[in-house]
Amino acid sequence: MSTDGPLLDVHHLVQEFEVRAQGGVRSGVVQAVSDISFALEKGETLGLVGETGSGKSTLARAILQAPRPKAGEVLFEGVDLVKLKGRDLLRARRQMQMVFQDPFGSLDPKWSVARIVEEPLIAFRTGARPERRRRVTEVLDRVGLDPERYGDRRPRSLSGGQAQRVAIARALALDPALIIYDEAVSSLDVLIRAQVLNLLERLRSELSLTYLFIAHDLALVKQVSDRVAVMYLGKLVEIGPAESLYREPLHPYTVALLASIPNPDPAAPRAPVAKTIRGEPPSPIDPPSGCRFRTRCPRAQDVCAAVEPPLRRLADRHYAACHFPVAVDAPAPEASAQEVARAQSGVVAPAAGRTPHQLGN
Amino acid sequence: MSEAVLEVENLRVDFRQPGQLVRAVDGLTYSVDRAQTVAVIGESGSGKTVSSRAIMGLLPPTARVTGSIRFDDVEMVGLPEKVMREHRGRGVAMVFQDPTRSLNPTMRIGAQIREAIQTHGEVSRAAARDRAIELLELVRLPAARERLEQYPHQLSGGMRQRVMIAIALAAEPKLLIADEATTALDVTTQAQIMELLRDLQQRLGMALIMISHDLGLAASFADEVVVMYAGRAVERAPTRKLFAHVRMPYTRALLDAIPRLENASHTRLAAVPGQPPNLALRELGCPFTPRCPNATDHCAEHEPAFEEHEPDHLWACWHPCSDEARL
Ligand SMILES: Nc1ncnc2c1ncn2[C@@H]1O[C@H](COP(=O)(O)OP(=O)(O)OP(=O)(O)O)[C@@H](O)[C@H]1O
Ligand SMILES: Nc1ncnc2c1ncn2[C@@H]1O[C@H](COP(=O)(O)OP(=O)(O)OP(=O)(O)O)[C@@H](O)[C@H]1O
Ligand code: SF4
Ligand code: SF4
Ligand SMILES: [Mg+2]
Ligand SMILES: [Mg+2]
Known about the structure:
The complex is a heterodimer of chains A (361) and B (327). Chain A has 361 residues and is α/β, with parallel strands linked by helices. Chain A contains 13 helices and twelve strands. Chain A has helices at 56-63, 86-93, 113-123, 129-142, 147-150, 160-172, 190-207, 218-224, 242-247, 252-259, 302-306, 337-344, 356-359; strands spanning 8-19, 28-40, 45-49, 71-76, 79-80, 96-99, 178-182, 210-214, 227-232, 235-241, 312-315, 318-320. In chain A, the strands form two sheets. An eight-stranded mixed β-sheet of chain A has the order 6-7-8-3-9-10-12-11, sandwiched between helices. A four-stranded antiparallel β-sheet of chain A has the order 2-1-4-5. In chain A, helix 3 (113-123) crosses helix 4 (129-142). Chain A starts with 7 loop residues before the first strand and ends with a helix. With 327 residues, chain B is of the alpha/beta class. Chain B has a single domain, classed as P-loop containing nucleotide triphosphate hydrolases (Rossmann fold). In chain B, helix 4 packs parallel to helix 7. The termini of chain B are far apart. The relative contact order of chain B is 0.14. Classes of the chains: A alpha/beta (361), B alpha/beta (327). At the A-B interface, helix 7, helix 8, helix 9 and helix 10 of A face helix 7, helix 8, helix 9, helix 10 and helix 11 of B. The complex binds adenosine-5'-triphosphate (2 copies), iron/sulfur cluster (2 copies) and magnesium ion (MG) (2 copies). Residues 56-57, 182 of chain A line the site of one magnesium ion.
């Protein structure tokens, strides 16, 4: 086991689904995750955004090997999970937990809160009963649920925020290294959501957890993430430090996402989102040739249909897959002169120093 | 005739349930002018949907509605149902959150729009078809003509919501109520649909009630904002005034809990504790007391009245926030 490499290192991950023709839906292969690579450092939070069907949940499940990806490698602490089987895979899997959007859907309604949180400990044969009980009390305390008051309750008698705390407590029970949150706060009300987000932040720093945080709300993702990845139709189109991705988005799709965030300041100037994106998402079955965003991109040129843009490094730790990236301020130190020249030959002159709020809203 | 299309006064909706009475809406008062957009904002269960269903006359028989709902200067509460339906059918339409549930999955899009057109007047089949195409073009659905032959599942979520809006517009409503109409959609699609609604509203001179839990959306699109808590209106003002001079601690809490792009990563959000009250247990005093940073003993005993304290700015609070206050 290596200790100094990234916690999670994903290489050329591919996941596909065959779909059969059914009432108007064509048959074919959905390329839900298409050759995606990224790494996650210990203690880091990577936010993952993208529209519905872009492959976020599929990517998360492929990392957990449920189901196994079609191709690629998922190195967890240096060990490729794709090659692990049986017990070895199980042992690695306890290091990774997932929390889902619908708290009630993921909690067994017949079980008490304490039993739900104990379940993973039983499944992984961890400790004797008194020990497990102690652990349950401990994690319920951690997520802010009084074990005395809530331990015997059924999910039905909980509010949405409380139920989500139970799901988080369950995820913590096995003391994982990585937690994947798949839209875990998306269905919560603003005030409850703020409570849960603060809880996630506290847990992260107290327990040195690593997070993959999937959500469709960009402002929310920024709040919790060190880096942010953007997916579109199965492709990773941009990834970079949260600060620079929001300040200087490189991919036109990221620009559209940022322009779509309603600004809670009515006096802020707003540009219509129609200038940043058009039309409807194309079918995930045989997606557009070249750049998959080209059918909706205001910057698209002929080359975009012919050549698929590779993910390129355009700024410090900041990568985008676009022939004509939006804001390339200064040539990235390690980018080749040719790369920069091509990046800057975009139709629209590189817009230096624009803030997300000037771009949209 | 007044400028107002809709005037809701002291609206109260009770649900009778075995052994308890749920007061879902408790003395709601607001009005909507012609061509105005009013946002009704509040957390889940605050009574947004029930109050708008009361306006539409779409509540189940277990609901008891009192107070006053004047639409186009006609009092709707207490009118015989049939008369009420007719009057309202001509003037108010509603778009809901979930377009998949509101559209008939076994019927072609064209037939569903034609049906809506024909319930609002004697129109020939051909004329209804032309009008259906016109409506689909109005909501900017690409390839409108071909869509008529398609079924709902062949459209994306955003396209289905456009069809729902087209159906609502078939009635040529004076007032459109959009209940979380964009909540289930992707952010870019949500922004596209909101821009569409605003354009339509300006072009057709239609009034719009936009129901949402998202204060950010209200800031971007509404002329006036009504904030609800526990079935009550707790603050109401023209949008800019409200955001510049938040008075209700609850509104302040909602606003401070929104993640901002200008925040650095890992900053804590201002969060109030607790959750909204159980509406079946009516307690004395201000319903926000257990969660409110400004609360005093007085708040727990006496319910503050919802009144105009500054020009056009109403709130219900004993200890309103100052302009500088942040949680
Ligand atoms: N088991 C499956 N069988 C067939 N297709 C699938 C399956 N799971 C996912 N897909 C398809 O793969 C694509 C990616 O789906 P996925 O659920 O990963 O998207 P997502 O980004 O998580 O979307 P959302 O924001 O709606 O959760 C979609 O086109 C989806 O329809
Ligand atoms: N048919 C009904 N019978 C009994 N109670 C009801 C009924 N419909 C709604 N309620 C209650 O009335 C209250 C207000 O509900 P309403 O649906 O108006 O909330 P809302 O503000 O629209 O919330 P959301 O944001 O979740 O849509 C809730 O407590 C709800 O449980
Ligand atoms: S490669 Fe072309 S189509 Fe794709 S995002 Fe860049 S400019 Fe747009
Ligand atoms: S009346 Fe009291 S409890 Fe209610 S919002 Fe105002 S200060 Fe808070
Ligand atoms: Mg998903
Ligand atoms: Mg509702």
